[in-house]
Amino acid sequence: MARESLDEFEPAEEPTLKIAEKQESTRSGIAVIFIVAYLIIVLVLVFFTTFFGLKPDSVKDFLLAIGSPLGFIIGYYFKSRDS
Questions:
Q1: Residues 6+ apart with CB under 8 A from 59
Q2: Span 7-61, pLDDT tens digits
């Protein structure tokens, strides 16, 4: 009797589709967090440069150090969307 009910059972979704959706959602979330954080850092640096006399050369170096990983993360996200 239990055997008959198991034979009639069909899974609602493919597990691979769920995993792919989770991976896409996670990639998207990470990319958005990094972009927002980068924009906040840029605004804070502009504020400090304007009002506290922070040197533009140090700001440039800091943005360059942070911008490179950001470019990698965004590139990875958009590459994964194409495949």
A1: 45, 48, 49
A2: 566 655 566 678 878 888 888 888 889 889 999 999 999 999 999 988 989 888 9
CA distance 33 to 39: 10
> Which are the contacts of 46, defined by CB distance < 8 A and separation ≥ 6?
none
Say if residues 27 and 76 touch (Cβ distance below 8 Å): yes
Identify whether 11 is part of a domain.
no
Of 44, 38, 47, the C-alpha closest to 72 is: 38
In a domain, 54, yes or no: yes
Q: Which domain holds residue 35?
A: 17-82
Domain count, the chain: 1
Return the closest-CA partner of residue 42 out of 70, 64, 65, 63: 63
Q: The whole model's pTM is what?
A: 0.67
